[in-house]
Amino acid sequence: MTTALITGSTAGIGAAFARRLAADGHDLVLVARDTARLREQATELHDRHGIEAEVLTADLADDKGIEAVERRLADRRNPVDLLVNNAGFGHKGRYLEVPMSDELTMLKVHCEAVLRLTSAAVEAMRERGRGGVVNVASTAAFVPRGTYGASKAWVVQFTQGAAQDLAGHGVRLMALCPGFVRTEFHERAGMGTDNIPRWMWLDADKVAATALADLARGKSLSVPDPRYKVLMGASKLVPRNLLGGISSKTGRKYGPR
Ligand SMILES: NC(=O)c1ccc[n+]([C@@H]2O[C@H](COP(=O)([O-])OP(=O)(O)OC[C@H]3O[C@@H](n4cnc5c(N)ncnc54)[C@H](OP(=O)(O)O)[C@@H]3O)[C@@H](O)[C@H]2O)c1
Fold first, then answer.
1. Of the N and C termini of the chain, which has fewer Cβ atoms inside 10 Å?
2. Is the pLDDT of residue 13 over 80?
């Protein structure tokens, strides 16, 4: 029996990873801020799949929250075999419209927490000679798309660099780059989604299943859908300024303030 720790497990892509991994017989450590929702999820996954699901309430925008998850990942008596750094959020607003404190919170959750949790997990995995880490980035990492895209570009570069440095130690690291996925993400950020064409939406369960298959194949980067693979390939041919113009207009329509 192996154990997976998922941050942001209670909704969207994280919940899809939890369902997939529980169905495959993995025990889980579920991490998010809402304890009641975590407990409900743990009970449901335990009852449906017979796996053990621990609840770890932690705010990854806070040092204490990050430290609590680091401690769990470093626990050699209860090893974590797979870490999914998934917790994240979007901002309602373009550059300079978002308060600096919110920009810094995004860097804390998307970059500092990912660096610290990956490092805590990978040290223990390297000792055992096996383990895996999926860091959820975005296709926004590859196009000019505000501070969100910049934070996700960091996730991709960090993950692929670390994967290179750890080659030969039995530890796999992969950056996952989905396009638009139907989750709570846009509503939480107060973003309208009317201007996102229907064909661009991905299903969270398919994204999680493809990501795990790509990790098993040893990929360090997963773009989990053929439509987005084509788009990402084509985007390399488009001048950066034009790409930035298109990208910043798609899926950034803001709902009522
Ligand atoms: N949806 C998309 O279109 C899309 C596309 C590409 C990449 N992504 C990335 O995919 C990841 C998951 O997004 P999603 O779409 O599944 O979002 P979601 O449906 O809004 O779920 C976000 C999850 O993260 C948790 N979370 C948020 N802030 C947290 C914090 N400070 N500390 C701990 N947990 C926190 C939430 O639970 P609590 O509120 O209880 O903490 C929730 O479980 C993010 O990294 C996002 O950037 C999303």
1. C
2. yes
Q: Which two tokens stand for residue 168?
A: 């030969």
At residue 223, what is the residue type?
V
φ/ψ of 135, rounded to 5, equals -105, 115
CA–centroid distance, residue 126 to ligand 1 (Å)? 28
| Residues designated as active site | 148
Which amino acids bring their CB within 6 angstroms of ligand 1? 7-14, 32-34, 37, 59-61, 86-89, 109, 136, 138, 178, 180-181, 183-185, 188
The two three-digit tokens of residue 141, written as one number: 């990492």
What pLDDT is recorded for position 144?
84
**pTM of the predicted structure, to 2 decimals:** 0.95
Of 17, 39, 183, 198, the residue with max ligand 1 atoms within 8 A of its CB, to mutate for a pocket test, comes to: 183
* Superfamily name and number for 3-248: NAD(P)-binding Rossmann-like Domain (3.40.50.720)
Q: How far apart are CA 104 and CA 109, in angstroms?
A: 9
